[in-house]
Each structure stands twice: as structure tokens, then as C-alpha cells.
PTS sugar transporter subunit IIA (Mammaliicoccus sciuri), 150 residues
Amino acid sequence: MNLIDVLDENTILTELETNNREETLETLVHLFDKEQYIDNSEAFLEAVYKRESEGVTGIGNFVAIPHGKSSSVNKVGIAIGVLKDEVEWPSLDDTGAKVVILLAVGEDSDNSKEHLKLLSLIARKLSNDEVIEQLLNSKNKTEVVAILSN
């Protein structure tokens, strides 16, 4: 699996204006729902909040990678929000978030493997400060896809 296999311009928003973590997550979950990645927004959002309560998903450098495992997930997906302004988000370096990459995975064992692969691919990509800088400055969906798929 490559990131290009799961990147979908329909689940990417740039110059997103949200006021807090909750609003950001709700907006991204709505994208999953609209594009039929999930069949129950409330159940999926509950799974995301459950994971959020278990530990920090802000990895630093204004990036957060929240995720949820739920039976409401129809297909593995990534929703990305590039925010206009930083929102408060618990993180490893005490910065908020300006790039939020939300992962949706099902609960069965095959999906768990996909989940770990996705996290690994994203973490590897985001270990490059230049990639993070490009994402922070991206202005459209096409740029986001190009940055993450190169």
C-alpha cells in the first residue's frame, strides 16, 4: 500500500477555518460520511475521541494524526484538514495543530494491519521537515496529494 492509494481529494480541505479540535474533527468526519467511508458519523467520532483520550495524537510541528477504529468504517481512508489558523491540540511539543490527518479504519484484523501500515507511511513522510513545511503552506487539494504522494 502507498499513500497515493488512499488519498482522495474529496476528503481533503485546505484553508480550513475551525475554532477548536472538536470542530476540526467533526468537519473531517463529515467528509468521510459524505464520501461513504463511514456509515455512522457518531459511532466513528466516538471511536476517535476514545483514541484521543488514550494519548496524544499531536506529533509536533503543528501536525496531528488522530484516528479511530470502528465497525462504522466501510473502507480505509484519510481525511486531511490544512487549517488557516492553529487550533489547540495536545501534542508532543506543546504546539497546536495546523495540519490534521484523520485515519479511518475498521475493527477487523485486516484493517488493523492496514491501520499500522498507514500510520507508518504517514509518520515516515512527516519525519521530513520540508514535507511538513510544504503541507503547512499548501493552498489546494492537488498540492496536498502531490506533497504526500512524492
The radius of gyration is 14 Å. Residues 71 and 116 are 17 Å apart (CA to CA).
